[in-house]
Structures are given as structure tokens and as C-alpha cells.
Design goal:
By secondary structure, this protein is α/β, with parallel strands linked by helices. 38% of the residues lie in helices and 15% in strands. The model has no long low-confidence stretch (mean pLDDT 94).
Amino acid sequence: MRHPLDGITVVALEQAVAAPLATRHLADLGARVIKVERPGAGDFARDYDRTVHGQSSYFVWLNRGKESIELDIKNEIELLHALIARADVFVQNLAPGAAERLGLGAEALRAQHPSLIHCSVSGYGPHGPYRDKKAYDLLVQCETGLLATTGTPDVPSKAGISVADIATGMYAYSGILTALYDREHTGQGASLHVAMIDALGEWMSQPAYFSRYGAEPPRRTAARHASIAPYGPYDCGDGAVFLGVQNDREWAALCHDVLKRPDLVEDPRFRTNTDRVRHDHELTPLLEAAFAGFEADEVLALLDTAGIANARLRGPAELAEHPQLLARSRWCSVATPGGEVEALLPPVETGREPLMGAVPALGQHNEAIRAEFGKVPA
């Protein structure tokens, strides 16, 4: 079966999360991704943890469907250039300036290979006072204001996943796809640069607008929403339920069909969303008093019947047993050096059988790639 990126070769001088996420999505679409790793050590994400059959959960997540070659790029630069010469895409996230010092910058490589799509991933961009500053996910969350908007009123908190890296990887992925599409029309490659501060900064635009043009910055409201109410967790008889009301029509449905308090619809404290946010401290006890005599499942059923969005709080381990994912057969076995794991299918359903390649061992493809590209090990 044909896949969308069949025939596309990607050479990835990558490590950690952002760049590997972008290239894994390309591999899922059928691209051949050759991952260049440090001899004996490899991508340092291989050592983040040992939880998945003795392997890193990060590495298993980010590197399926790739080939791995160990390469000393300082002493084997000719072999790396041979790989790039036959590639459609080159992705690198070396330290700032390192690619240029090795002759692997966009200007040098695209002078030799005009159709090459060259994608660099960095923390803070190719110039400016932060150019050489180390950029890890938490630190970029700090610099873009995400921590200032997340957590409780007393304690700012980081996002529980690598949100800066994920944002960056997804923009690199979409940028590469755009460049491949454009090359079909122009025959020319592209020089792409994706910075973590730019990617997460884009995701922070709404709080930035709210703060810049409003009277005050967004409040930290834990699991509640800073500018919509009611929205978040509400206690009931045996725990809590999560719900969200997006407009006045839904607010009316909640009052009539769930709270059995139609009088609240026109209550001046709650008539508009702005009113409800301002008086959320009064609104929350009203909801929780109405829910107190019901178990969570009963409240969720009432909310469903009324057309009010709702959810229950699940732990990460429960994702594997989520009834909606199971009903849609969204899990698939993927081979790893330590044994098979269950992986989620790619989020975009194309109507084709998805490509879910194996996670490579370090240097698993050394001999084959060296033979193919003209340098067999002694």
C-alpha cells in the first residue's frame, strides 16, 4: 500500500524531543528517516528513563519507524554529506552555530543541493541575545509566560508534558510538509528554522493579548478556566466531575435541566459569561450543592442529556483502557528492541493502513547504511 511520503528520505541529526517528534510523524507517513546518533551513546533521550521494557518512554514514543546509524560527525563528515546528498530533508537541532561550523548550515548545504529542505530547530532562534542560551522545555515555559498562567493562585506550575518541545516539533513537521508541497511546484527546497520560544509563544498568544490589552493578567485558577465559567471541576457525592459551559444557551440548559434552577438564568450575577467569571466564587457553591446528592456517573448522565460538555478525571495509565479509543481500535503493537509495546495510531486518519515501524536499537542499521552509501566499516 502506498503511503503519502513514500520515496522521501529524511536525514535527522537530532536528539531529545522536538526534532525527533517532527521526524517520527514523517516516518509515520512513509518517509525513510535515517537517524544519526553519537557512537556508543546515541540520542541522550535514550537515557531519560528505563520504564518501557528497560527503555526510555520518551525514546520509544518519538523514534518508531526510523533507521539508526552511529556516526562520529567530526571524523566521518564525508559519510554524513553522502547521506545528505541523497536526502530530500535534513533536520538538525545541534547547539547554536554547531551546524554551520561543520558545514551543515542551510546556506552551505542548499548551495550544493538546491532542492534540499533544511530544517533547523533551536531554543531561541538564530540570532538575538538569547541565541546561545540553553533551552529546555521548563525554561521555555518560563520565558513565554506559561508558568505564570498555570497552577494555583499561590503556586505557578509547569505543564505536565513537554509542551514547548511538542509545539516546536509540530511546527517543524508542518513546515517540512509545506516545503515538500511547494517543491513540487517550484523544484526548489527551503531553509526552515523553528525556535521553541516562537512555537510556544504562538500558543501563548491569547493570554498575552488578554494581559497586554486587558486591565490585569490572567488569573491562575488551577483546573478552572481563567475567563470562562462555569468551567472546571465541581464536587459531587463521590468525587468530582468536570464540565464546561461555552455560551449563554448552554448556561440556560444547565440551569433548567441539571440544576433545576431556572431563576439563575437571568440572575444579574450570572447573566453573561463575564458576570459568571466575576461571581464564580458564588456560582461554584450553587453547582456543588445541586450535585451533592448524586454520584459522579449520575451527574455526567444529567450533563450529557442536557448537552453540557463534561469529563471524568483519568490518570495517564487509564488512557490505554479508554472506552472510546478501544471502540475505535486506536491501539497497535509496535516492535522495540526490548519487546512489543502498544502505541496510539497517528491522530490523522487517512483511510489507509497506518505505517507503524519498529523503534531502532542504537546503531541497528550501521552496516546496511554504510554499505548503501559507500563506506563499509573495516
